[in-house]
Amino acid sequence: MKITWWIFTLSTLWIYKQRTNLCEATLCSTSCLIVSNATDIFTLDFETSTINPVISGLTRAVAIDLYFDLGLVFWSDVAELSIKRLDINTDNKTTIITKIGVCNGLAVEWRSSQLFWTDKTNNTISVSDLDAIISQIKARKALCNFMFWTDWGVNPKIERANLSGSQRTAIVTTNLYHPNGIDLDKGNRRIFWVDEGLDRVESIDYNGGNRT
What we know:
This is Low-density lipoprotein receptor-related protein 6. With 212 residues, the protein is mainly β. It is 6% helix and 46% strand.
């Protein structure tokens, strides 16, 4: 089985011990990985090699992200067409967004307490606050920061826009087949992505240069 398929399907996310004592105490004791396998979300502890459940009995969880300081886990359910949230302090699970299309990617912008997600069915990227007051950015189509996403269409590409949805630009348009996993190295201002069709992981800077 291709490693790229696993990277995409497991929807992985680093959790660092240094970020917050809350995550260290609740999810894992050291640096670990939070993973979705569709029906369960769990952590993989790198130092102890243990698997610890976070929440089980889900329908089809695909995209996941975490708000470290508040101890909130967010995930999309592509069967129920919704986005849900778990408070790991209280073990309270809440459906916060309903009646959306297929969401294959979401991200928490913790500095502004906003949630961004892609909607494959409606061909959009949307944003809300963490209590789901929704506004919509017309994608496929204020801030000084960027959001990045992959497009698996007839002409695959990786795009960038401001968090307001403005200044949209394609930064990778060649030598792509099925780019279906993306993450950022914010310290070095680089983008990493997985291409399932080409079976490789690549990287560029935020402006689309220095591809490796």
